[in-house]
Amino acid sequence: MIRRLPGVGLRGRLAISIALIILVALGITYLAVYRGTGADLRQQTDTDLEREAGNLARTLTAGEPLDPSEYIVRARQLVDSQPFAATSRLIAISIGDQIVTNQPELLGLAVASGDSDDESRNEPGEDEGSESPDESEQEDESDDRESARRLLTADSGFSTVEVHDVGDVRLLVSPVALPDEGVAAIRVGQPLESVERALDGLSRTFLVVGLLTLVVAAIAGWLLASRTAAPLRRMAGVAEGVDGGDISARMPVAEHSKDEVSRLSGSFNRMLDRLEEAFSRQRAFVADASHDLRTPLTIIKGQLEVLARNPDPDADEVRRVTAQVTAATARMDRLINDLLLLARADSGIEATREPVELAPLLAAEVEGIRDASGREIEVGEISGRRVDIDRDEMARAISNLVSNAVAYGGKDGRVRITAVDQGPNVVIAVEDDGPGVPAAMRGRVFDRFARLESSRSSESGGSGLGLAIVKAVVESQGGTVGCSASSLGGARFTITLPAARGFLA
Predict the structure, then answer these.
(1) pTM for the whole thing?
(2) 172 forms bridges with which residues in the sheet?
């Protein structure tokens, strides 16, 4: 519900949530304390009543057996020594049809006697003009008689009786056997007004303290929420700047802090680093792709303009222009196909994979490049295990590696290809004896349009997508690529692929 409040920010929601939690905790605590205190006070009242009734019973039955009239006298003496007041107990001792109490009005005894006196004084004809009691007095007398009835007819043991003008009274009725085989009933009652006053005081105290605690909790929650939300607000500002196109901003990260906010800030900064690098690479990619496409387009445009300026070109000129245009077109076609392959790899479209035996695949690619280049390519150890790959795409990747080795090897240098088992994987390695790849460039050599020499032209250095295609193809099929120094003196490019199930070593 707090989350849907309009115009309430994170700080407000946190502060309100803390206040609500404190409120619920205070409510639960109040109920527990209120009920526990009430139960303790009532239990103490019951204990006091039991003690009082026991003392009365022992005093009443002490000594030699007495006549019933003498027990009545003793009971009256006991009662008269403990007069009833607003804060004292009700005591009533019943022996036969005689009742001795320290509060006759409460038991209706005085009312009954008063009624009889009134009747004797108001015989018919003596005072015909006197007024009868009003309705309120009649109602009070009726309530008093009902209270007396409840007190005198209560069952043995503890009970709570509502008494007019007094409130709830905790009553204990205790039967006592007299030595003369008679039975007395001792009634001891304690008004619960003091318990109710104590609970009311507890409620008022809890209300005042609870309100103060709630206010303090709300203020503390607001301050805590402000402190907690401060780095999030800074992060929101940086995120808004990134959304506006500024990806150079970074989150402040507290030194030597490992809390969630610092970890989030660090992760956000690393994400921005990768995002900035990706944008930079994208811009370079677009620039290089535009350059590599512009070159053959310039060739085609220039040759066609040359041909157009000659109104009657001879056949040799036409063939020369046709050859130039065809070569430039083929180069554009290769570049576009390479870009489409990379775009497909970036889209996450999975290739159709199947268990493939490496020996025939590698032999076919080596044979084709050997025939086209006239170079001798050495084939070393080839694993007999199959790998789960897309045959055509992996053939393209291997062809790119072998062609790269032939292109950058020595004039009459060596090129060697092997495929060896390495645990659950098969490692395909293509090595040459050329100049190799500097250690600082080995992490970037698989980037798109990456060239080791900035001055190398596209004609001599290719489009710069060959190794990027190798990486995209291999990683899309669950493998990894690598570059290191070769024992032949040049570069060693590797493709590591997991062996197909059922063909693990």
Answers:
(1) 0.46
(2) 158, 188
